[in-house]
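Hello again, I could really use a second opinion on something today. I've dropped the whole record in just underneath, so have a look.
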Amino acid sequence: MKKVVALVLALVLVLGLAACGTNGGNTTPANNTANTNTTPANNGGNNAEPAKVEWPGKEPVNVYVPGKAGGPTDTAARIIVDYLAKTTGGTFAVMNDDTGGGVGVCESIRNAKDPAHNLAIMGPQNITAVIGGTYSHDLRDTSKFTIIDRVITGAHSNFFVMSKDAPFQDYDGFIKYAKENPGKVRVCQQTGSLSSLYVGILIEKEGLDVKLLEASTNEAETNLLGNLADVAVLSFTKVDGYKEDGRILPMLYIDPERDTVYKDIKCFGDIGLGDKIAHGGQILASGAGLDPAIIAYINEIIAGIVNDADSVKRAETSANVLDPLGQAAAIEAYQKSFEMYESASK
């Protein structure tokens, strides 16, 4: 009888161990799978193995851009959008909206019910709007927005430029004339943009009283050509386009050091503003709640833009640099940009 009981107990023990082994085999892969899917979102880098997702699928993706078609922000954004369309096979629609210097774009993605199909590509617009007090929703707030990647930076800084018909010939002449004629120099700037930031910095530094004209980059260029404005902030590419005909002339380089092409033009460093330079780039963002797996997938795709011949060529011809960072590094870079803008605006 004792032998029978012992045999039964041994059999129960074996079956129990087998059952435990089976349960352990089922739970471990599930845990590993979960960790694999969430790691890219936590790391946010381009080297992580992203979860397999189907994005964007058949539904078109709206990509909001805070600038008019043909402007510098739009030009950079379309390099990114065209690359995403080519690599994913999806449909992407660029939605140009310069309302409120980028506020309209931020509101579009913040209020979108589907963050995966409503993205934005923007430069410093949200930074300057938040610092300037014209908008209260910060792109760094993860309860409202998602920073996905920083894809492009500018190869050159901007210039303060002047119309050839302006009543002065260079930067020193501009300062002298503006002080002798308060309120007469017409200066273009766009609220929430780099131009607004730098115009404000220069006005405060020199104690100027000028007439501010609200104008996008394209409008500022048109105003200068039509003698409807005297001064504006334009990109290096825009300035270089008038190098031959001289209708728009560089006046002050917004950089700590003089440009190698325009060596005779004063820079911010020359007038004591070398520490007031704010650099950034083009940020790809969405509203809050974007699936971490989609973020990782987009990071992986965007990382390959530096090897795409067409994208590289378009970036070079528009004075842009392709430099995707991945989510974590993009968030860090954006924070540094915010701090630089904040410091420059004081």
Observations:
- Residues 1-48 have pLDDT under 50 and may be disordered.
- The longest strand covers residues 145-154.
- DSSP finds eleven helices and eleven strands in the chain.
